[in-house]
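Anyone else keep sequences and structure tokens together like this?

Example one:
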Amino acid sequence: MKKNSSHQIAHILIEALPYIQKFKDKTVVIKFGGNAMVDEALKHSFARDIVLMKLIGINPIVIHGGGPQIGKLLERLNISTQFVDGMRVTDSETMDVVEMVLGGQVNKDIVNLINIHGGKAVGLTGKDGDFIHAKKINLQTSSKEASASEIIDLGHVGEVSSIDPAVVNMLCNSDFIPVIAPIGVGNDGHSYNINADLVAGKVAEVLKAEKLLLLTNTVGILDKEQQLLTGLSIADTEKLIADGTIAGGMIPKTRCATDALKGGVSGVHIIDGRVEHAVLLELFTDQGVGTLLVNH
């Protein structure tokens, strides 16, 4: 049994070798969210994955969300929340809470976890180093009752208008691991809350990342029989969206992935963040733990 176990370990290491060689000196952007952010064992396994990546010569960049944590604090402060099409309406008071939670509590927790496991992480928001420029989103909706489309003001909800990667490049080149909260600043000087998937995609594009990994609470993209689809092209995803196979919250995640591919990212992985060491399993094994999307 011990001999078989040793052979198994050796096989795993040998299987990982070509991937390690391929990704050395390359940038990998990881969007950290879902169960992986709240389950203690998963949080620690994620941090160890990130530290190992850095030690073997890969440049990991972590971008995180924090919706549930924001919701909990708003509830404790008796600040009511309204959602429109899955987006939180964010007035000035709510934005203060968003910045406290994303740029403070959540960001520093992740930084601390990575550092505990031997890494050198540095927390950022889009305000640091003039990093993420944002523009306000105004949502346009059409209801059956309305005779014309309606513009809904979401407050401090934004999208990425541009990214200056200088501060991230400086950190990566100095052996630090950037951990980024998805807050941008507008030309008006106001802070804007941006969807973390979108920020991860844009950062991966601008840095010409080798890989973008999106951690989710599902096994990946499923077909109509609920079987995992392991490899998809941009054309495949368009067909799956059109026929309703990809639906709901997976649509914006898939669109984010295809936009990143069109922007020059080599591959995007939508992976199951509920699996311990999901990042290492997806990057360094033949089988992986999710769906790989490629630009062909």
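And example two:
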Amino acid sequence: MRIGTLARTIAESPTLALNDKANQLKAQGEALIHLGSGEPKSMAPIDAILAASAKLVSADVKYTPTAGILPLRKAVIAYTEQHYGRTVSPKNVMVAAGAKPALYAALAAMVDPGDEVVFPAPYWVSYPEMVRMVGGRPVVVAPPDGAFEPLRGDLEAAITDRTKAVILNSPNNPSGAVYSRDLIAWLVELCERRDIFLIMDDIYHQLVFDGCTAPSAFAFTDRPIDESRVIVINGVSKVYAMTGFRIGWAVGAREVIEVMTNIQAQSTSCPSALLQAAALGALQGDQSGVESLRLTLMTHRDVLVRELAAIPGVRVTVPKGTFYCLPDFRAYDGDSMRLSGFLLDRALVATVPGKDFGMEGHLRISYCGSVREIVEGVRRIRWALDPDSPRDIHIGDRLCTRDW
């Protein structure tokens, strides 16, 4: 098959590959514990369901404007005013079929072949591949050992005359880190001074703990929105537990949004009218579910951190947001792909290798499942790794003996 050279270089998503294998094991009746999930277990808001149902019953499900229906863009404007303190117009907003397509459209709008896009590790697994897909070169900035926030000097040193954009995801997938106000303020100033776009991936911005807030890049610029270099990506997937609805958006300067909208017009035409109706219902409806999810996740975070602390040699940085933790397992195995495969095969626990997030030797563990799953999953991990743990363990209905 004469597949294109660029297409051949795009790596398979490790999270999707892991999910496929985990789902196969579960379908075979195995007592799998999935600690790799990237979606909340709570249900979508009732207001979203009712709005989508009403749209469906109307049977009037047609094309929409490429940038999204005006009521939804106005709801995004209200959301931006409430959570970011910035007033924008409908022409500063583009709705997309998820935050990922919005981010891809932003990169396609600003990156020429050979341009560079800088982002710190740990990073979301799709960033490097998306940059390559638009002809760019991903430039990763590693954090100091034992930390998840990059040093300013390392970030600045990574920026060259070919740098078109910096991507920052805070709260961060996979670490749960929330970057400091000082770092974001400094980065906004640096990007404006160097005429570089700052893409803020804010998909988890309301899921923060311990009185923490996720600083908004908009708070650190005095430029009018149409002169700003800040692009904010967001959506309903995580905060509203609507991952399958695939609605996200971008907020930024009109000139960039116009180009992104043209790209969307020539690729996907427009987001689904039905799913836009659902997103509008979520944004305009009862918001208590967001706080309920946040509190539940904070409780689950505490349980996970407590259980992981019982495994000798595992280093845990307490997450300040999201529903992920990125513990350091290098005391047992520095190869995260091998370790993740071992835990899946021997303990029937699904985790995600840190290698593909730029953090080799770590595993991403999700705590958006039940407390029972968290406790049982970590119990199995300790059994598989810690030689001082009990030799025999029940996994489902099976008695397993550690013989390695």
